């Protein structure tokens, strides 16, 4: 997880700009800025946990606006899928930002220009992909919430502690589309002449 995307004390950004930094390059400083600049850290985190409860989820608890390791901060694949689904359905701005491969935030009186290149490599690897966000911490490993759309079908997948998260996300989403009756978009594996030592 990227610790910062270049914010400095005294800069002024809109919530939209901070959300872009948070979701496109995983800027923890953007997440903290949103919390501190709106209602304060304690109330913001309280609202996060209240929202999870309102969604009827029981396997998540947040201690801060960033996803860094904390023994009292946790979630599950199911909860992350439900939270992401609710965000996509409820907030068009969220849906728009998570699809961005890059973002150019022009210079303004409160800050310099920022050019942000998405850390979500799945957007360039899997044509149906439309977001959402990867992440990594020492305890959680490589994780990814991924969204893809084909022929009006939207799927969201969640991988936790997955060392090959981009490749695994592609295959999981493709499998989901096949279950919806759509043809696979991935190449058919060619049988190997020699058996794999890993079975």
From TrEMBL:
Signal peptide range in chain numbering: none
The Peptidase S11 D-alanyl-D-alanine carboxypeptidase A N-terminal domain, residue ranges: 7-163
Pfam families: Peptidase_S11
InterPro entries named in the record: Beta-lactam/transpept-like, Peptidase_S11, Peptidase_S11_N
Keywords: Cell shape, Cell wall biogenesis/degradation, Hydrolase, Peptidoglycan synthesis, Signal
GO molecular function, one term: serine-type D-Ala-D-Ala carboxypeptidase activity
GO aspect biological process, one term: peptidoglycan biosynthetic process
Binding locations of substrate: 133
Protein family (similarity comment): Belongs to the peptidase S11 family.
Name of the protein in question: Peptidase S11 D-alanyl-D-alanine carboxypeptidase A N-terminal domain-containing protein
Source organism of the structure: Candidatus Aeolococcus gillhamiae
